[in-house]
Design brief:
Layout: H1 6-13, H2 18-26, E1 38-42, H3 67-73, E2 84-88, H4 98-108, E3 114-119, H5 124-138, E4 144-150, H6 156-162, H7 167-182, E5 188-195, H8 203-213, E6 216-221, H9 235-238, H10 245-256, H11 265-278, E7 292-296, E8 300-302, E9 311-312, H12 333-337, H13 340-351, H14 363-369, H15 371-380
Helix pairs in contact: 4-5, 5-7, 10-11
Length: 382
């Protein structure tokens, strides 16, 4: 049997997007603003966890967009180029209309090829029901479905990270039920772990637990932000100290060691190794600097959740945020995304905050599109 070529392997790893992504990221973005191809929608900020590394659960309640609000907003042509969508929160399963919203998103994004649901897995029955319904929506349309379940350790470790007694056993059941569902329905399932000072030295047990069950495990080093998770004051409690250095660097080295053609995240982990070990600026390409954005349940838009919002699509033109009262006109998502001042702000981020960012959000997509960097990494290991 002939051995597949490098390009054949790359094509299998990311069908239909590598060539265009390479062209967009290396050529076209120098001449025009790229339309968005990826986005995240935080469908709610309500949450049933009390995570040590996130303060979303402490946000005071505010009215969130209804299905009708989302329907109006999604009429904007900006959404017609979206190919990858992530639904996050808060905890998305707490929205009773999540399936209805998902159907609306799918109908409004004709180029959608991938939908990811990020969940903490605590509301087991709701997560399972939502997953089945989302599969019913997406499978016939050829849209791949990815379910990412938060898991920060085995047993008490996870309970302490999420501040919910019995959280691990709920997540364990959720993952087990989802694995059973995979036997009859096609979708990707993985566990996602936030690495902090609190669980760093107990990750080997988590890796073994996931491996025994055939669950792919992904990691994200803890980050500290004034917006979104709003956890800056917890840095002394959660950030890595000198005693953690050897364990952290060993983990990063291990994660970057698999330099197979399709393991694009090895580039990111090698980059994190150099950032944490050598203080080198980030090199991993980020779609949020080129062709991605975030919309949340309040109508706020962000190029990146780690930075300030760039506008609100429920705000009347020349007025304040819409809160249920009629207004003549609203600022479209397109107007906000392409606003010259916002674009200047995004360009400035690439020269400042982005160089210090450790986020893995959409990193695999960015690496695939900026293929020149990845191929150089495979050849040189740098």
């Amino acid at each position: 049997m002939p051995v597949p070529s490098l390009w054949q392997k790359l094509s299998r790893a990311h069908r239909g997007g590598i060539l265009r992504g390479f062209f967009d990221y290396n050529i076209m973005h120098h001449f025009r603003t790229l339309p968005p191809h990826q986005m995240q929608i935080n469908v709610t900020y309500r949450c049933n966890a009390r995570c040590t590394m996130c303060n979303i659960w402490q946000m005071p309640p505010r009215p969130e967009m209804s299905t009708e609000d989302f329907s109006r907003v999604l009429q904007d042509p900006l959404f017609r180029t979206i190919e990858r969508l992530t639904l996050a929160g808060g905890e998305p399963s707490l929205r009773s209309d999540l399936v209805t919203l998902t159907e609306l998103f799918v109908q409004s994004m004709p180029r959608l090829t991938s939908l990811t649901l990020v969940t903490n897995g605590l509301a087991v029955e709701r997560v399972l029901a939502d997953t089945r319904a989302i599969l019913d929506l997406c499978n016939p349309r050829g849209i791949s479905v990815n379910i990412s379940v938060s898991l920060d350790g085995v047993g008490q470790v996870h309970d302490e990270m999420r501040n919910i007694p019995g959280a691990f056993f709920k997540v364990e059941r959720c993952l087990s039920e989802l694995k059973d569902l995979q036997k009859t329905r096609p979708f990707w399932l993985g566990a996602a772990c936030v690495i902090t000072h609190k669980n760093l030295h107990k990750l080997r047990e988590l890796q073994a637990w996931c491996a025994e069950r055939g669950i792919e495990l992904g990691f994200q080093p803890v980050g500290f932000h004034e917006s979104y998770v709003a956890n800056v004051e917890r840095r002394s409690e959660l950030d890595f100290d000198e005693a953690d250095r050897a364990s952290l660097l060993n983990l990063l080295q291990e994660l970057s060691a698999d330099r197979s053609v399709s393991n694009f995240m090895a580039y990111y982990w090698n980059d994190m190794l150099r950032m944490y070990r050598d203080g080198r600026p980030r090199q991993t390409p980020c779609p949020f600097t080129l062709d991605s954005f975030v919309l949340d349940a309040y109508g706020d838009m962000y190029y990146c959740l780690s930075e300030r919002k760039i506008g609100n699509c429920l705000a009347a033109v020349g007025g304040e945020a819409f809160e249920g009262q009629q207004a003549a006109a609203f600022r479209s998502c397109s107007a906000i995304y392409y606003d010259p001042q916002n674009l200047a702000f995004r360009r400035e981020l690439t020269r400042t905050a982005c160089l210090r960012c450790n986020s893995a959000c959409f990193a695999n997509v960015g690496i695939k599109k900026d293929l020149k960097k990845y191929l150089g990494f495979l050849v040189t290991g740098k």
